[in-house]
Structure formats: structure tokens, C-alpha cells
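Exercise 7. Predict the joint structure of the components listed below.
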Amino acid sequence: MSSSLRDAPARVDFISVTPTGALAHRVRNERLERLKRKASPWVAPLALLIAWELAVRTGLISKNLLPAPLEVVQAAVTSVQTGSLLTHLGVSALRAGAGLLLGSCIGLALGLATGLSRKLQLLLDTPLQMLRAVPSLAIVPLVILWFGLGETAKLFVVTIAVVFPVYLNTFHGVRSVDPHLLEMARVYQVSGFKLYREIILPGALPSILVGLRFALGLSWLVLIVAETIGATQGLGYVAMNAREFMQMDVLVLTIVLWAVLGKVADTLARWLEQKLLPWQPRTQRLSAE
Amino acid sequence: MKTNHDPARGAELVLERLDTVLGGNLILKGIDLRIRPGELVTIIGRSGSGKSTLLRVLSGLTEPSGGTLQVGARPIVMFQEPRLLPWRSVVQNVCLGMEHPDEKLGAEVLAKVGLGDRLHDYPTALSGGQRQRVALARALIHHPRLMLLDEPLGALDALTRIGAQRLVESLWAEKGFTALLVTHDVDEAVLLGDRVLVLEDGRITLDMQVDLPRPRVRNSPEVGRLAAQLLEAIFGPEGNPDRVSEPETAPTQPMAAVPKSSARDLASTVWQISN
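Solution:
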């Protein structure tokens, strides 16, 4: 009797512990996998930073040519403390945002108009395609003569650059709305504003968002050109200034900031995509990226 | 099955010498046709015979080029594909065409087609048969007096299709609308139609009254006999291979009138069991 009592808990332990152990192991493995997936995009940049730091410290790279990452961090901390960096960032973000908003609205309106009307397409598409071929840099002298060195000039350059990706993708999106759905809408007498709201806009939205994502990246890129036009504030100005005074750490800092901001803009665009296209299966969205 | 045909519910259709030209070709050639209110008419014919064009003309999506056409009510079309908006939920899709979308009513109609528990899913989460039932609910919410069905069951698998056929038939019996169903399935044409029209090269070559009582039994000798007659009308008494342009639907022997495919056998078994 006593021996069977001793045996029983042992057997229960044996049965209950083993699967739990296996499960725990599997859970640990899954966590590790997830961590790996999240960390892997950062492995290469991090390795580069470490190599860079070591190269500068050992004198492999001259300090005058390239400051060490820690010095760049130091420069960032200093300029945040004096408040100047955040001010410049804010000014740049405002310019990019305003240009993006204005350019997207114009691009969207043009894309909808040409997408919905063959006549307008014939009238507008060719001049728009010609304008698109002009590089933003080429219009800068003209813009300075038109608007002087003020904010208008910068806004203009960013706006013009942003218009085209939004325009092209909106046009394409409207034209690729499923004709079967349009026919169905006719049967159910859906027309006018309701047709736009229910079918044409949602149908074109994935394509419009692709355009917006391009535009978001482009607005930052063009901004550096815009901020070389007699700016006294903004990230582009900081970079120009740093070049004048050979502040290598600040110069590298601005470059790093462009990279970070580009990533932030892209993440924002993806988030927007997820919010606005909830009907798209996740796999479809991932494959589109 | 009780049929409840109120002439006020179903619309009348009258076509006189109706011609339709598409892309320079005469697709419909002088069609004369009168369809009584509440009738369920099935139309069968080989592809290119003009049956889809006929439905498009009746639905107002294609303009006829000659003759007269009187459609007694606003037609509601069910297409071969469900044509749901992927960015709207099931119930929103059903309410799409309503002037004042009423999701409560939408939910009621969806319950009628057996989807009362999927109101807020996106169509991508549904199966092909379920999507077609959403399309049916979208049509029904308008209390149609005339339903035009362009092979809406054609893309469904055999079992789903039987369920859908019975659903369409029972809704028709209950609501009393006039219905035109285009199909490529001879058995379906006989099982569902009060009348079967054979369309060939833009002309109606056979207008067959089907006086069998409902519900009709799949694979019953009467249905088989009428189906055989239809095949003969389409392909000639010998099933002349020279006239055959579509190998997948073309019987090489008159024997082919008897249902042979295993899917169909399986389907008919289920039909009998569930009866």
C-alpha cells in the first residue's frame, strides 16, 4: 500500500512534467524566433557602427575625415541640449509636411480628374509628363527669381516634386478600378458622389497610398535641395553650415538624421496603409511591399 | 413547394424583333419573346449563342440596335461573379444600392440566405458559395420584380451549387418575381425552368414548356427525358460532331444526355437524401 502511494505521485510527475517541459521549450523557441526576426534588420547597421568606431579609434580612419560614432552622438546631445537641433528639425518637418500636403492634394485632384475623364487626360497628361521629366534642381534658379529666398520658394520646390508620384499613382488607381464593380454599380443605380465614395476611391486607394509613400520619401529628399536656397533654419541649413565650418561631427549627424527620418516616414506610410486598407489580407499587403 | 404567384410581384417582359449589334457583329437576330409575370425561364445555349448579351440588353447594360423592348420593372442582375466590394463588410455590401442603407434590414435578408452570423466579415473571408449568397441578398433587398441571373451558379462546386439552386427556387416561389436564368447546365435548365429557351446563333431555336410538378427530382426519368430533348435540340439528333465547337460540353453520342459524371451522381444522391 505504502509503496503504491509512493509510486503514484512519481508517475503523475512523470506524465505532467514532460509535456510542460516540451511546451516551455517550444514557447522559448518561438520567442527567440520572434526576437531574431525583429533584431535582424538592425544587425548590419549595428555592426557597421562598431566597425566604424573601432576604425576611427585605432587611427585607421583619420578623425578629420570621419568622426567616430560616439562623437556624433555627443554632437547630437549637445545640439539637443542647446535646443537648436530640435528647432531645425521642426522647421524642416514643417516644410516637408506643408509641401507634402499641398503637393498630394494637387496630385490627387489631377489624378482623379484625368483618371475619370478621357478629355482631361488628353488635355493634361502630356504637359504633366513633360513637367515630370524636369529635375527639381533644374528649377531652383527659376524659383529663386520668382519667389526670392523665402519660404515660398522652398514650399514650391517640395510641392512640385511631390505632385507627380501622387498624380501618376492616383491616375493609375482610378483606371484600374474593377470594371465589373462599376457595371454592378450601374445595376444598383449607384452614381455620382456615392459612386466615388463607395467604389472609385476605395478601389484606387491602394495605388494612391503607394504614391503617397513615394511622395513622403521624396519630400525629405527634395527638402535638402530646397534648404540650400538661402535658408537660415532647417536640417539642410545645418548641413551647409557644418560644411562651411568643417564641423565633421555635425555634418555626419545631419546625414544620420536623414536616414532615421526616412525610416520614420516609411513606417508612417505603412501604418497608414494598414489603417486605411483593413480589408486587404495581411499576406497580400506584405507581398506588395 | 407552394408557388405563390402574384402577378403584381412579377414583371412582364415583351421583346419584339429585337436586334443587337456588338463590335460590328449581329449578336441577337430578331428575338420575339413574351415572358409572363412570375415565370421562371431558363436560357441555355452554347457560348457565343448570345445568351449573355440577351441578359445584358434586358438589364440595360447594353443598348439594343433594333426592335422593341418592354421591361415591366427595374431589373436586378446577378452576375457570374458575386461582384462584392472587398472594402465593405458583408452587410454593407448588401445595403449598397439602398438610398438609405438600413443594416437591420440587411441583416434580416442575410439571415434568409443563411449568412446571419457573418454580417461584419469582409467578403475575402467567405467561400465562393457564401459570396454568391451575399450577392443574392443584395439583390433581394430591393424586392425585385424581375431578376436576371447570368450563370450565377456556374462557378460553384457541385454540392454548393445544388444548395444554391434550391435557394434560388424557393426564394422565387416565395417572392413571386419573374426570373430569367442563363445556364450552361441542361439539367439545371430543366430542374428550375417553367420554360426553357434554347438560344443558337442569336435566335431562339426552341421554346420548351416544362410542366413537371415542383420540387423536381434530379435524375428522374421525366427530367432526363426533357434534358435529352434539349441536348438534341442543341446538337441535332446524332449529336453531329461537325457542329460541335465546345468539346467540354459537347456529347459525342446521344447517350450523353443521361447524366454520367461522378460529381453529378454524388450531387443527386445528396439531393435525394436531403429531400
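Discussion. Chain A touches chain B through 19 residues (CB under 8 Å).
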